[in-house]
Each structure stands twice: as C-alpha cells, then as structure tokens.
Design goal:
alpha/beta, FAD/NAD(P)-binding domain, five-stranded parallel beta sheet, five-stranded antiparallel beta sheet, 7 helices, 24 strands, 22% helix, Ferredoxin reductase, oxidoreductase, FAD/NAD-linked_Rdtase_dimer_sf, FAD/NAD-binding_dom
C-alpha cells in the first residue's frame, strides 16, 4: 500500500521544490507528483548566476537540480490561485491542478527601485537576468551597483574580472549588515584593491533616466553609468496566495515541519519564514526572519517531504551554511550571523586570503569562517558545532 497522499502538487520549480520532489521519491512515494513552474529554463542552481554565469555563459547550472529520473509531471505555467475549499491550484492558462497535499515553493522575486513606467532597471534573479546582464557588461565601460550585500558584491566581482569600472552604493559598508565590522572592512579592502569604488548613501536612492542610465542620491547628486544594477534584496513570491490568509508581508510562515496552519498545505524555501513558537535556531529568539539561502532551501525541501508523508525528518529546517566568491577569494561561513566585533581566534592571514576565523556568540553558539582557506565543508561545520569556551 502506497504511503502518503494520492496527489501532491509542488508549486515552484525551485531548489526547495525539486529537493522536496526528490526526497518524496527517495522515501518511497509513488503517487502523482505535479510540479508547477514559470521559468522557461526549468530548475537550476541560482547561486551560480552571480558567481559563474556573469563571467561565462557556457557554465552548466542545471546539474545540481536535475530531476529526469523522478517521474514528475512538470507544468511550465505560473500559479495564479490556491483554492483551499476545492483543494486545487489554478494556473495562468486556466487549468486547475487538484491536490491532496500542496507544497508552496515559489521562492522570491527581486526588490525593484524603478517607477512603474520606468524602463531599463537590471536585476539578477533568473538565468535570463544573468544572460542579459552578461551581454550588457560585455559592452559596458562603467557600472553602478545599488546594494552592498552578498549579491551586491558578487556582481562587482564579475565586473572587475571583465575590466568594467564599477561603483557600489549603499547606506552601510559592504556586507556590514551580516558580516559585521571586521569582515566588512576586509571585504571593502579587497574590493578597493580591484578598483571598486564605494559611495555611501545617506538615504534612499532613485533611478535616473528613461531608460535607466544612473541614480539620484538622497541629497540630489547624480551618478551615471552604462549599466545600473539593483541588488536591494528580494520579496517572497506570495502574491498569488492573496485571499487565502496563508501569507503575509514576510512570506509564508511555517513551523518546524514546514507546515502552514492549513492541513495538507506546506511550504519551503525562500518564500517562507520560520515562525515564533515553531522552530527557530535559537530557542530564546522571538523575531521571525526570512533566510533566503541555498542550504536552507535544501534543508526545508527535505523536511517538507517527510512532513507530507507524515514521517519524521532527518534534519531541521535550517542550515547555517553559505558561501560566496568575492574578487577571487572564496568565503565559507558555518554558523549564525551577525558577526559582532573581532574574531576570537584567527588561524593564518586574512590579508593574504588564507585564514580560518572563529566567533563565539554570547548564547554559546559558534561561527567559523574560511576566508580564502581551502577547507572541507564538513570540517567547517564541525568547528561551528563546537561550544564557545
């Protein structure tokens, strides 16, 4: 007898959605499995867009999430409505897909700065975005990047590798919000060494031109460039859930099982946040936050599959690991952010791009950072799982 619901619909051909599909099959699920996605390229590894595709359009980014062996019914149509009474998902072509269990994995969309009628704003979220930006950079001599987060520093790294002049604009120094002052300073030093200019904004930034050809700073000063890229975060792709009561401005709240309050409806990946009273990485924390990182999406995809089948998960719906590549230096992080103050331990030389650093947090948790140092992810995770002295 087959375990689990007869019909599972996964809304979102994302890493969380495809991970959930693979985990369902791995756990022996043999029922009907429908995946709804609206990207014409299917599922692919988004981290590679900013780290690899901007430099080389021939990079294959589909292998990490391939699913030809999973017996899926893949429908490339955007979901438009979730009918909880009828237990079905409608798509833009008017079709309806009935379900016994649904997994919401629609991810996120880029936050934009352009006015409704303003053309030419560039963002980076999809393969089409990356290909378009790559082509523009091939023809450009100057670029403005708005936002100095992870994406906002990976794009300048690609620009520098192409010999394109780049200016980064933000209200705080590069990666300061998550990396804290110590690592932020070293990232800024690395960027400056590669010719990147940083402009500190005092407030909001507006896009200039039609099409966009620059920015207007809060005081009225303007900067122009051949290419302007907005890297100002993302928003959960949850508008299609309007009227269901499942989503709010933060996305879809889920508990430790990746379950929503609606029986049989689950969610995973960038569209979600872990709600208070469910699972949070620090039991004393009450602030709910989205954590749109690749490893979190993978972890939640595995958890949600187990929950759909009514089985215990082999992991928790949170993974404190991510990596970035900045100006030729790989930075791997295991453990919670923000990193306040200087590291408690430093092995090697961060100036030379070969260091292993450790932060001990007041709550007893540990964050380990490999700044250019080659180290197995398993070892870095082991260092982060140790207890602060």
């Amino acid at each position: 007898m087959m375990a689990g619901p007869d019909r599972v619909v996964i809304v979102g051909e994302s890493v969380a959605g495809i991970t959930a599909a693979r985990e369902l099959r791995t756990r022996g699920y043999t029922g009907r499995l429908v995946v709804l996605g609206n990207d014409p390229h299917g599922s692919y590894a988004r981290p590679a867009l900013s780290k690899s595709v901007l430099k080389d359009l021939t990079v294959d980014i589909s292998a990490p999430v391939a699913y030809d062996d999973l017996d899926l019914n893949v429908v490339r149509r955007a979901a438009t409505h979730l009918d909880l009474a009828e237990r079905k998902v409608s798509t833009e072509d008017g079709d309806a897909h009935p379900f016994d269990a649904a997994i919401i994995a629609t991810g996120a969309t880029p936050r934009r700065l352009a006015e409704p009628s303003q053309r030419g704003e560039l963002v980076l979220r999809t393969l089409d975005d990356a290909q378009a930006l790559h082509r523009r950079l091939d023809e450009a001599t100057s670029t403005i990047v708005i936002g100095a987060g992870f994406l906002g520093m990976e794009v300048p790294s690609a620009c520098a590798s192409k010999g394109v002049d780049v200016t980064v604009v933000d209200v705080v120094p590069p990666l300061r919000r998550l990396f804290g002052p110590f690592l932020s300073w070293h990232v800024a030093r690395l960027a400056t060494a590669h010719g990147v200019r940083y402009v500190k904004a005092s407030g909001s930034v507006r896009l200039l031109g039609q099409p966009v050809a620059g920015i207007i700073l809060d005081g009225g000063a303007t900067l122009t460039a051949d290419v302007v890229v907005s890297c100002v975060g993302d928003v959960p792709a949850a508008a299609w859930l309007g009227g269901t009561g499942i989503a709010d401005q933060l996305g879809v709240p889920v508990d430790s099982r990746c379950a929503t309050p609606i029986p049989g409806v689950f969610a995973a990946g960038d569209v979600t946040y872990l709600r208070s009273g469910g699972y949070l990485p620090n039991p004393t924390t009450t602030v709910a936050r989205r954590r749109p990182f690749w490893c979190n999406a993978v972890a939640q995809g595995k958890v949600v599959a187990a929950s759909v089948l009514g089985e215990p998960a082999d992991t928790v719906p949170f993974d404190d690991y991510f990596w970035t590549e900045l100006f030729g230096v790989h930075v791997k992080v295991a453990g919670p952010l923000l990193l306040d103050g200087d590291p408690g331990q430093v092995d090697g030389s961060i100036e030379d791009g070969d260091a292993l650093l450790r932060w001990d947090h007041p709550d007893g948790r540990v964050t380990a950072v490999a700044f250019g140092r080659r180290i197995a992810v398993s070892r870095l995770r082991a260092l982060a799982s140790s207890t602060a002295d």
